[in-house]
Amino acid sequence: MRDLTGAGVYISNRIGKAIADYNMIEDGDKILVAISGGKDSFALLKLLNERKKWAPVKYEIIAIHVVSDYKPSKAVSTAKLKKFFKDNKIKYCIEKIKLLNKEGRMSCFWCSWNRRKAIFLAAKRLGCTKVALGHHQDDIIETLLLNMVYHGEFSAMNPRQELFGGKIVLIRPLCYVEERYMKKFAKESCFPAETCTCPYSETSKRRMMKNFVNEAEKKCKYVRKNIFRSISRINKEYTQIHPEQS
């Protein structure tokens, strides 16, 4: 870990704990790391690549970036991505997809669905056993709250999730890392990242959830930890709702 400093050391340690707790990476794994162009996916890629030097298991990583015919403002350029991959000696692939309809429009769901499809197809083609996504703890917490408030369900991003009968396993090694550490590490590392300003995103809703957590944290410093823990600590005695309570 001698090549890491500051926030990088902390994040790498948290990644190590997540990998151990959820059995995310096994010996011989070939991991496809999804790179959106934001700070979180760059950090995940760099740290997984660094951890290969001392990790107790041997694994291979390949970066993947999906580009489409729709380009939101401030999206990181493919040229910058390729330079980053080459400078860090990381194998990579660039997948191209079409998103816009005949009227030049699309939706957030359609974009997400097609990007995931491209990643899964690439994983199969490249023989990858795992797909790593750069969602951190705040992403997971905000998604949980969004699903509760707007969809009336208790569901969140799983740190480890088997798909297609276990043929592909999604992993989120940053699940124990708060966003503030990601920002510090991105600044230390000078990533060529950009903040996506896609008009189809749920930025306003996520911002509301983020503000709620920040305000609640002023009263209880364990708010983030408690919300995250609640995902795996459901009290079955309180899960049944009687008809007159619904």
Share of helical residues: 40-55%
Mean pLDDT across all residues, rounded?
87
**Approximately how much beta-strand content do the residues carry?**
5-15%
- In CATH, the topology is named Rossmann fold
CATH class: Alpha Beta
Relevant terms:
246 residues; alpha/beta; six-stranded mixed sheet; 8 helices
In short:
This protein is an alpha/beta fold and 246 residues long. The protein has a single domain, classed as Rossmann fold (3-Layer(aba) Sandwich).
Describe the structure.
With 246 residues, the chain is an alpha/beta fold. The chain has a single domain (7-233), classed as HUPs (Rossmann fold, 3-Layer(aba) Sandwich). It is built from 8 helices and 6 strands; from the N terminus they run H-E-H-E-H-E-H-E-H-E-E-H-H-H. The chain has a 6-stranded mixed sheet with strand order 3-2-1-4-6-5, with helices on both faces. It is globular. The model has no long low-confidence stretch (mean pLDDT 87).
Give the secondary structure arrangement, pairings included.
Elements (H helix, E strand, L loop, with lengths): L6 H16 L6 E6 L4 H13 L7 E10 L9 H10 L3 E7 L10 H19 L3 E3 L4 H15 L8 E4 L4 E4 L7 H11 L13 H15 L5 H8 L16
Helix pairs in contact: 1-6, 2-6, 5-7
